[in-house]
Each structure stands twice: as structure tokens, then as C-alpha cells.
Amino acid sequence: MSGRGSQVIRTRHQKLEELRRLGIEPFAYEYDVTAHAAEARAAFEAAEAAGELVDGKGQDVRLGGRLVSFRTHGKVTFADLQDASGRIQLYFRRNDLGEKAYDRLDLLDIGDWIGVAGHLFRTRMGEVTVHVTSYELLAKSLRPLPLGKEEVDPETGERIVHGGFADIEQRYRQRYADLAVNPHVREVFIKRTRIVRAMREFLDARGYLEVETPILQPLYGGASARPFITHHNALDMPLYLRIADELYLKRLIVGGLERVYEIGKDFRNEGIDRTHNPEFTMLEFYEAFADYRRMMTVVEDLMVHLVRTVTGGPLEITYQGITLNFQPPYPRLPYLDALKEYGNIDVNAMDDAALRDAVKSFGAEDVESMSRPKLMDELFKELVEPHLQQPVFIIDFPLELSPLAKPKRGAPDLVERFELMVAGREIANAFSELNDPIDQRQRFEAQVRLREQGDEEAQTLDEDYIRALEYGMPPTGGVGIGVDRLVMLLTDQPSIRDVILFPTMRPE
RNA sequence: GGGCCGAUAGCUCAGCUGGCAGAGCAGGGGCCUUUUAAGCCCACGGUCCUGGGUUCGAGUCCCAGUCGGCCCA
Predict the structure, then answer these.
(1) Residue A5 pLDDT > 60, yes or no?
(2) Do residues A102 and A94 lie in contact, with contact meaning Cβ atoms separated by under 8 Å?
(3) Residues sharing a CB contact under 8 Å with residue A503, sequence separation 6 or more, in sequence order
(4) Could you check: is the Cβ of residue A55 within 7 Å of any atom of nucleic acid strand B?
């Protein structure tokens, strides 16, 4: 709270002054920690099981962490300390600490960082606890954390949190507090890091080179989206934040790097909802001499590796109550067949007007100006995607929707492209990359015409990229994977904001 | 962009047809040397999201706005 400040905050400031008056520095410089809470507990239990304890007294430890609860009983006090590994109970006794140090516990608050030294023991109630013989304040907390009280259900053994930090808006705005008080939130982000690390392991092991390409680009491309625009002062020119890495990574294939990948932020200037954040993380990888069919098997192998990373072995996960099985091979379902099967849309039997009527029937906007492929895309999103729960490759998309993909062998209106769909969402998007510079120029020109007709998401003509293709790009398979959405899937989170540490928000 | 819902103590929430703004937890003062949502007693704590309006009287009703959530586009 601003202004006069709350009673709680005022009290903490008073304690801070009192500490300074006593010559105690409330913001320490270091503490020599010998273990984490979880290690200390495990070590005690091992010693106990081996019968090594004398008078029930365990190892000496020095722990650092945050005070998360406090129970005073006159001349004895219990507290809980939380560090990165979890929580452990602390036991302070006046006789052991001395009167002065014991009384100064009054100057501590929940949320303070402290260091404690003492030995481990097990209480009458059976809890492994640190019998504290000395403690130090490491950092005073001047603002109360929204910590709830925890209870363990005696029947199920589950932790029940009373009160706590539930306001969704404040949890996103103050992620530091969310992380500090909600262990399951910490778990999600730890898993996210493991998943991204597993992606690197997988690609590194297959000889892919991790690279970094420009985020600030003079032209943006590689996807259909509106960009963020910024300005370079010294060059006095506009620059765009990238919407995709694609065109730069393929330039590296031209350069002979053969297998490259990048994991990085892309930026798209569009709405925010459960599956869209303006900045998001994308994995793209490209492999020379491969076509989209080969890339499907790479994606299957990658998914197996990632699912196993999360589950520890099994290939089934639950997403929002639905069990998903990632055992390959995943079905290959042609785009037009999917439209027919799930949407009852037989594209070959319907003229543009019939398609347009079908799109209108579910109330889309700007239907009159849509091209035939755009209409098909609308129908696909509306009628087909919700049915695609179990992993499936949708293959062979209409050419106009895919200006960077190679025409399908034997079907020139289609391209060799697949999307891996899971839980009704696109997880991966991939092509046999278009490496014919003459065809690529024509595709760009078609995009420019669409742009001139008002399609703000149509791509721009990138002359330098054409020049690169003119030098010669080998046949190449490329894949893009939205990392945030994949992490949502693998951590069973309903919103992209639950897997981004600091999601984009309007200012308070 | 549209619809619905929400915003009240530091936190989690209640507050009916308009009538003195509440509870639990946290925080403060007591008692308590193995407790664990510790317990018992006492006192304290409010820009009811913001701005208008209706009314004798608004947390409550009306209008506009801010921020957020869900659904739709």
C-alpha cells in the first residue's frame, strides 16, 4: 500500500529500526550454507535408519532460507524454513539460544531470510527438525508475503493451503510473490527449464548447431503476423522485432551449416489470450537433405524424448483431464481428408460460394474478401481442430497458406507441410523448405499482392533471402515448435501465462 | 472488437429487498519449554477499484471509466 502504509508494513519498519539500534545489520552480506532442507532431512533419515544416532541427535547443519511460519510457545518456538529444495521445521529453545538471542526472535517476521545452525532431530510428533543453536537475520522482509497456512490432510496426505495467494492478476504481476508462496508454480517453471534443456540435448546429440540470429530485422518474415516496429537512431531507419527465425536459419543452410537450430523469443503484435503472448519462445530447426516426411520422424523422436523427460518414462500424459498417448507413429492425415472427415467439407465438390456460405454459417468476419484457401483455413480451424486431441500429423496444406514450402510432389496446389496437432492445438509446423529461388520470388510476389489488397499479415518480398537461395540451398526440412504451448501441454497448464514467468500485462 | 463475471482489511473471502463495513488468517499486547492451520484472552486494522448520478441515506441501485478472468469473434 502506498501513502501512510499499512499497519503491518509500519511494524516491520519499526523492527528494522530496532535491529539497527541493537547493532544488528538487517541485510547481511553472506551466510555459509552447508545443505539444503531436503538434503538435510534425507541425511538425517539415512543416519537414523542406520542406527547411527546418539540420543536421537543428528548431523550439524547450516541452512539458509525464508521463514514461512512461526509458532511460539513461550520459551520455545517452532518455525518453518523454506529454501529451494523445500521446507524444514526449526526448533528454537530459550535455554539453548540464550535469553538475548531468543527474545530477538520477536524482531523476525514471516518472509525474512535467515541462516540457522544446529543439529537435526525428530520431534515427538515425528517431524525431522533443526534444533537451532544460533541464527542470523540475512534479509529483512518489509512487506508481508501472501502466505497461506498449510495443513496436511490426515486421510489423503495432501497439503491444503488456507488463504494463500489466489488473485490471478496479482500472481502474474508479482510473479516473485507467486513463486515465493506457491510451490506448484515453482515446479512448473523448473519443468519448463528441464523441457528446454531436453530440446537442446536432443538436437545437440543429432549434430545440430545452436545459433543466434537477429531479433532486430530490417524486414520481417517467415510467418504471417503483424510485427512490432522500433527505430534505430544512428541509422535513422525502422527495424522490426522478428516474428520468426526462419529466413535467417535457412540462410545458414545455404552457407553449409547443414543442421542448425535456435531457441529464442519471437514477437507478434496481436491480441493476448490463453494461447497468445506478444513475446513467446520458438524453437526452429533445419536439416539439410531431409524432406517433411523425414522431419515427421524427427518430431516424433523429439516428442518421445520430451514426454519422457517430464514423466520419467511413460509416454502418456494428462492434459486438462484428457489422457494423451505419445507413442509413435502418429497418424498422417491429409488436410483435405481431415476437412472431409471432421467437417463434412468436400472441397472438390464445393465452389467458392459454397465454401463461403459454410464459413458464414458460424459467423466469421470479412468472409467476402477471403480467398479459397483462406476459407478452407477458417473451416479447418472451426470444424477440424477441436477433434484433433491425440497426436496427429495434418499433412499437405493448400499452397497459398504456405509461401515458404515446396509444392507437393504430384499435387501442385498443395505443399509438403505438416502440423503436429495435440489437444486441439498446433504444436509443430514444418515443411519441405522451398529452395527454388524463382518459385520463391513468385510466392513472395503473390504475398505482396495480398498485402496490397489489405492483408496485413501477408509476407514481404525479401530480396536478400532470394539472393541467398540463388546461391543454392540444398533440399531441407524445417520445423518450428512453439515452446510455450508445448510446455503448457507437458505441465498441464490451461493458460500460456502460467508458463511464462512475466507475461505481458497492461500497466497497473 | 462483443458478451458475461469479478475488484471490500496485508491475504482469502462474506456482506440479503439501500439503513452503524464483517469473519478467518497475518500483524500488535498478554499466557504457554516438543508444536504444526498450535491453543486461550485482549486490543488494533478500511480510498468498499476510480469518477459522476439517484436517494434523507449507496459497498449495495444507475451511468461512464480502469484493471483482470472466462466465453465469442
Answers:
(1) no
(2) yes
(3) A172, A277, A496, A497
(4) no
A216, containing H or E segment: strand A216-217
CA–centroid distance for A361 within its chain: 36
- The pLDDT of residue A363 is 65
Task: Indicate yes or no: strand B within 7 A of the C-beta of A351.
Answer: no
Q: What is the ipTM of this complex?
A: 0.92
Greatest extent of chain A over all pairs of C-alpha atoms, in Å: 90
Q: What is residue A1's predicted lDDT score, i.e. its pLDDT? A: 32
A147 Cβ contact partners less than 8 Å away, ≥ 6 residues apart = A68, A69, A110, A111, A163, A164, A165, A180, A181
Q: Which of residues 108-127 of A touch strand B (CB under 7 A)?
A: 109-110, 121, 123-127
Q: Determine the Cα–Cα distance for residues A383 and A169; give it in Å rounded to an integer.
A: 33
As to burial, measured by CB atoms within 10 angstroms (0-12 exposed, 13-18 middle, 19+ buried), residue A73 is exposed
DSSP lists the bridge partners of residue A120 as A130
pLDDT tens digits, A45-73: 999 999 999 999 999 999 999 999 999 99
- DSSP helix/strand/coil, A155: coil
With cut-offs at 50, 70 and 90, classify the pLDDT of residue A3. Answer: very low
- Say how far apart CA A31 and CA A117 lie, in whole Å: 10
Cα dihedral A269, A273, A277, A280, rounded to 10, equals -120
